[in-house]
Design a protein that fits this description.
single chain, 394 residues, mainly alpha, 17 helices, 74% helix, globular
Length: 394
């Protein structure tokens, strides 16, 4: 039995690693990236540091590790001391090494950022079967679901309305900072679940770290901590302080990035906000810029926005319900189970708030497929855990 359990755990972990690595390539424009890497022209830092969405640290961490390992191989006599003259020629392998390291670093960094998601799976489910089933669900969400599932969603929708078959939403490329959100939000849940009272220094560090990678992760940190504080009955004042701490740290990170010449995606809107007179005028100026650029189309095509969201959410939420009904309950006290479900629920609610704010700032018509992935992950896990715990409590 113990051997079977270890095999099941190994299978779940192996499936997650291989699956996520494949998804990072399939939804990461592998062909274009491969061409640039082989030509030695791929500028990862340049692409990541031009805005407030910085994930270059993960790339360079993986790059340094792979380069250190490759130094164990023979690449060129010039790579070591005591080289002697040889009458025979040799073919240096440095170009192959450089191309391989660049390619694996690009996608390995995204796999590294996604690892907290598997740690959350282990925290949520004890049995190997449950973990394996959860990994399959998450891979489907991240990978865009099998074609038969997507076709069924659109076919069912057309029974009731002129449903838009927006297949592009299920295969949109996921950018590096999308993978940062995929990993950071599970990390946030794990940290907030680790103690009964959320510490202010935890909120500060998490908000700053999240804000550096994606522009809404600092907000999600503060709101999740505040909602969790309210749910645990620890007072409105403490909840408000969590929001304030997260907000201050997020603004500080934005200021540092702005001083370094970043924020190119936000600069025009911020410049218009700075030029405006009062606080309300600044807010209107900032969102007014994004409204004209892309947000107004979310409302002009509201029926399309809603239909696309339903198409993306339906299979994920149904999968979460199915998982919650099938997996065995974890052998934990009811209090511990409820505490984790509360963290998942608060985090899901915070993500919903960002999606609502995004209606006035983001372009859901073109990018919804990648923008709702954090919500799909957390909502499906929340449903699964909530239903499982409800069954366990009966």
């Amino acid at each position: 039995m113990e051997r079977a359990k270890r095999c099941g755990e190994g299978l779940a972990l192996g499936l997650f690693l291989v699956g996520v690595l494949l998804i990072t390539m399939v939804r990461g424009e592998l062909r274009d990236v491969m061409g640039s890497a082989l030509a030695g022209q791929y500028d990862y830092s340049g692409q990541c540091l031009v805005c407030q969405r910085t994930t270059a640290w993960a790339f360079w961490m993986v790059h340094a590790g792979l380069k250190a390992i490759s130094n164990l191989f023979f690449l060129d006599p010039g790579f070591g001391p005591l080289a002697v003259a040889s009458p025979w020629g040799y073919a240096p392998a440095t170009e192959n090494r450089d191309a391989a390291i660049w390619l694996f670093s690009i996608f390995g960094a995204r796999l590294l950022m996604a690892l907290p998601l598997y740690l959350l799976v282990r925290r949520l489910f004890a049995s190997p079967f449950a973990r394996l089933a959860c990994v399959v669900l998450l891979l489907c969400i991240l990978g865009g679901w099998p074609a038969a599932v997507v076709n069924a969603v659109f076919t069912f929708g057309k029974l009731f309305a002129d449903w838009p078959p927006a297949y592009y939403n299920f295969s949109q490329p996921m950018l590096a900072f999308d993978w940062a959100a995929v990993g950071f939000i599970p990390l946030l849940v794990l940290v907030l679940d680790s103690r009964e009272r959320v510490a202010f220094h935890q909120v500060a560090l998490l908000a700053a770290f999240g804000q550096s990678m994606m522009d809404h992760l600092g907000f999600i940190t503060g709101v999740t901590a505040a909602l969790l504080t309210l749910v645990r009955g620890q007072g409105m004042k403490r909840a408000a302080l969590h929001v304030a701490v997260a907000g201050l740290c997020s603004v500080a990170v934005l200021a540092v990035i702005g001083l370094k010449g970043g924020l190119t995606m936000e600069r025009i809107g911020m410049e218009q906000a700075v030029a405006a007179a009062g606080p309300m005028e600044k807010i209107r100026a900032y969102f007014g810029f994004w409204w004209e650029v892309q947000a107004k189309y979310n409302f002009q095509w509201l029926n399309l926005t809603i239909a696309n969201f339903i198409s993306l959410a339906a299979p994920a939420l149904a999968g979460g319900v199915l998982l919650g009904l099938l997996v065995p309950a974890r052998g934990e006290p009811a209090e511990a189970r409820g505490r984790l479900a509360a963290v998942l629920g608060c985090c899901t609610a915070a993500i919903v708030m960002t999606l609502l704010i995004g209606m006035f700032k983001s372009g859901y018509g073109s990018d919804m497929g990648r923008q709702v992935i954090p919500f799909l992950m957390m909502a499906s896990l929340w449903l699964a855990v909530g239903l499982r715990d409800r069954r366990a409590g009966r």
